Amino acid sequence: MFEKILVANRGEIAVRVIRTCKRMGIRTVAVYSEVDFRSAYVQAADAVCFIGAARAEESFLDKKKIVSAALTNQCDAIHPGYGFLSENAEFAQMVLDAGIAFIGPPVQAIATLGDKIASKALAIRAGVPTVPGHNEPLGDAKEALAIAERIGFPLLLKPAAGGGGRGMRIVERKEDFLSALAACREETRKGFGDERIFAERYIVRPRHIEIQLMADRHGNVIHLGERECSIQRRYQKVIEETPSPAVDESLRAEMGAVACALAREVGYTNAGTVEFILDPEKNFYFLEMNTRLQVEHPITEQVTSLDLVELQIRVAAGEPLPLKQEDVTRKGWAVEARICAEDPSRGFLPTTGMITRYALPRGKNVRVDSGIDAGSLITIYYDSLLAKVAAWGADREAARKTLVRALNGYHIEGLTTNVDFVNAVLNQPAFIAGDLSTNFIEEHFHEGESNAKPAVENLHYMAMAAVLVYHMRQNLVRESLKPMSPLIGAAADRPTQHDYTVRTTDDIVFDVQLRDDGDEEQSGQQGNDPEKDAERERWPHHLTIRVDGRPYTVIAPRFEYYRRRLKLKINGVSHMFRLQYMEDHIRVCFCGIVRIYEIYSPREWRTTRYMLRERRVVQENVLKCPMPGLVTAVWVQEGAEVRRGQELLRMESMKMESGIASPRDGQVDKILVKPGHAVETDEVLLTFHT
After folding, report:
1. Which of 539, 583, 589, 572 is nearest to 359 (CA)?
2. pTM (2 decimals)?
3. Which of 91, 580, 592, 645 is deepest in the core (most CB within 10 A)?
4. Buried (b) or exposed (e) across 574-596, using 16+ Cβ within 10 A?
5. What residues act catalytically?
6. Residues contacting residue 461 through CB under 8 Å, at least 6 positions apart
């Protein structure tokens, strides 16, 4: 077994690998760039090695620096995690040439499967179903258009190299084909140094299903079941689950068998994932094979009770797999949400900043793989993934509810994240019903908001949380004034019922009646059990709350527990709310719903009745930067006539390249940036003639 492993990655996956190494008694070395010196994974490793500037090309993508760091620190092996160099055949060969073990598949397997055209040809030889199309690089415009017409529209343009959806385009009409092909070639050339594009039929409303494989050097290949990864934005997964609601035992066995056949055909070892698309008629087609550990591997670990990183390490050290296919057991259901630094209301554009407050969700059957903490700086240089929250349950609904509760309590301040968006997805009726496809977000969300109306009960719960904060504050003020004024009255004279009116940002008004049913500590129930007495001390307030006439039984904690996360027991069930205090208003987040509340009592004179609103101001004579990043291209010149929606610039941020479109028809006045410029959110990129 290896004595020391260098982890050639960062963030949550580096923490994840280091955790397993510690359990196995293996020392670890972390590599870090100039912006990562305080990161959680750096603190977790046994030793660290600085490898350069923040830009990935100068640090994590510099093959020579990574190998040199492993040699300098006398490492036996390198674990590449995912992303960066994990699927780079040249890097894997350099590691082996240096006499270091590469914790991953053979070099030739990486090279073959990393090329989508070559891997599709391999799949055909192995008898794996593939999507009909043209499995050769498209030629000049005339030839490419003729091939496209033979395939038929809609079709999908895909790069031969790379992954993560970069360079892919769905083409609905013949008229859009040539411009889409040019854009694909340009994007894949910049991203992967390869302009080869091929085309295949676009499967309408497909599911994305993947099979997790493990293979050793002794001829053993097994699969660990499937994961459903259909909830995606920008071809990037957002929520994954296992098993899939669409896959039965027969289909699982068939997909697992062809995935293992593909691995045997290429001589594969270590962890890998064969990805398929599943059409509405349950026909499946090969998509690609990822020659690394997947981001979503925790949910497979939750249902199989296996440590995939440990299996990777043992296979790389030459050990046989400790189990056969018939030994693989799967129990229950698991669902995972990816938590990213991005703004769903702005097309999932990346966000940056320092995390000022951070609180992890807790609970039984909840797992959080996180690489951040309070004080972590999120920059433009790396992927937007911050953490993964996974939940296990005996069945799908139990796992879903557990994950919803966990996300209700996941508190991140300092930058915009997708925490509430992924929670909204989990609460979307179509998701609950298991009606999934890769078009799910486009079909059910607009600008990050669900098209489904929130459950009335959830809105009532949120109103109660806001009212209780206000009510407890008012009581505290009264108590503080009692010694100063005899007019306040004794505690026994306080009313037991309080009436409030609650108004939200979307002008929904609730009438809330709060009745104090007596404090637990005054009810004579204290006894000789210290644990129960402590519980009663923390949860003393027993209340009946009516919202628009509907009654709820609520147990509330002492006021000192009313912080940015508030836990209430409503009708016997615990619920967590995230709170933010905004002047006289309270922002409440719960089950993917976000509302700002104004609360007032008819008994009190209020001089203000202004609801805080978040408004979007559009300045049409300027083009503002929608995200922090680097300008990679400027497509127009000063004086050019442009139309609304026309792409004027391109930017790169967090490994993602995006086009910046014109907000209006008009003439460009001044261009204030050029390629290579670093820009911040809302910085003016260019102006228009007024």
Report:
1. 589
2. 0.85
3. 91
4. ebbbbbeeeeebbbbbbbbbbbb
5. 288
6. 568, 570, 575, 577, 590
